[in-house]
Each structure stands twice: as structure tokens, then as C-alpha cells.
Amino acid sequence: MVLAFYNEGLVGLKPRAAFERHMSPGFIEHKPDVPEGTRTAAASFLEQLIANVPQPEWTILRTIAEGDLVFLHARFSPAAGAPEYAIADVFKLRGCKIIEHWDVVAPPPKDQRNPNPRF
């Protein structure tokens, strides 16, 4: 379910449809940039993000599930060749719907001193 949401909403660039299909009506968003923390506000936030960057691209790298929680490690690029952001998303599920979301977004490093990549 989380992969279906991510692939439709972010990879497929259709957040509104993905939120309506996969999020519960009482969905809670914890991202501090999303006013109100609701399903509607989160979908609007992503629509605006997609509209404001030249070629948004999300790539899922890893998925871990435990109980009612699903963790995704993803890469986000605002445009071809642009420095990439590392994203950690955590989703909570109930009754075949996503009911809650948290994320941590790390911007591109200014100085990559560690030889091991984030991805």
C-alpha cells in the first residue's frame, strides 16, 4: 500500500489522487512545513512542490516494514543533474489505509568527506 501510494503520488506526480486513494480521511501529517497537518493540506503541499521544481523525481531505495509501520529510504532530485536530497519516510497503517506520516529530509551535502554515499 505504501509503495502504491509513493509510486502514484510522488514517482507518478499525482499526489491528490494518491492521497484520496491511500490515506484515511483522518490522516495526520507531521511534516512541519504542512499547515494544519491534514490529508488535504499534505496533498496541496506536494502539488505545490511539484509545480515549483523543474523536473521532480523520487526514487525508492529501501523499504522496511514492521507491524503497522513502513519505512522508506528515498532519493529526491528537483531537476536532472541537480544535487539529490535523502528522504526517510515513516508511514503508519490501519485498515488498509495510511493514517499517519513522518519524514526527515536531508539536503545535498555541502562537503562529502565520507567516502560512503547516503544512497
UniProtKB/TrEMBL annotation:
SUPFAM superfamilies, A to Z: NTF2-like
Signal peptide boundaries: none
Cited InterPro entries: NTF2-like_dom_sf (IPR032710), SnoaL-like (IPR037401)
Domain SnoaL-like: 17-101
Protein name: Nuclear transport factor 2 family protein
Organism: Sphingomonas glaciei
